[in-house]
Amino acid sequence: MKKLSTEAISALIERCRSGDERAWHRLIDFVAPYIFAICSRSQLTRDESFDVFGQVSFQLIKSIESLQDPARIFAFVGTITRREIYAFFQKISQIDHIDDEAAKAIPDEHGATPEEDLLFLEKRSILFEAMSALPERDFKLMKMLYFDPEEPSYKTIAKKLGMPVSSIGPIRGKVLKKLYKLLKDKEV
């Protein structure tokens, strides 16, 4: 994820306010990972996350004029996202029926700061960049083991990757060593 300076963010938002369509696309691309991170922490499915993303994008377009400090774009978007997630849960009448564990997973205003969320997203981006340098099978294995929200069993992973269940552990260890070396080479 590319960092933008406060001045660049301010200029981008001003271009959005003046109706520059390319600026809007860039702004939405800039905040999208943050929106999806909040959705992920709220345990929304992929489709639910895209629904919330669409609503947040619409609300951002509708209310960009009320953003007084462009440097606080992540706080602004975070608030809109959390409100849309809450509205989503209310709409499907699950907010009254979710158990305590699920309720704790819904981020509130006192959760991570936008800066902490951004740092998390940057680290995740660096990790995925390093993972992309792995052979395809190794990449898929790591993704299924550590990033698949369905948390597939070793048996499911073995079947999808066409490998014996007993080889997943040793291969995982070797891949983690490769990944460590890739990250160390990048001095992360």
Specify the biggest β-sheet: none
| Gap between N and C termini | 15 Å
Mean pLDDT: 81
Assembly classification: single chain
Judged by helices, strands and strand pairing, the structural class is: mainly alpha
Helix proportion: 55-70%
Structure characterization notes:
With 188 residues, the chain is mainly α. It contains nine helices and no strands. It has helices at 6-17, 21-41, 46-63, 73-91, 100-105, 114-131, 136-146, 154-161, 168-185. The longest helix has 21 residues, at 21-41. The radius of gyration is 19 Å and the shape is globular. It starts with 5 loop residues before the first helix and ends with a helix.
How are the SSEs ordered, and which strands pair?
Blueprint: H1 6-17, H2 21-41, H3 46-63, H4 73-91, H5 100-105, H6 114-131, H7 136-146, H8 154-161, H9 168-185
Key descriptive features of the protein:
9 helices, mainly alpha, single chain, globular, 188 residues
Write a brief caption for the model:
The chain is 70% helix and 0% strand.
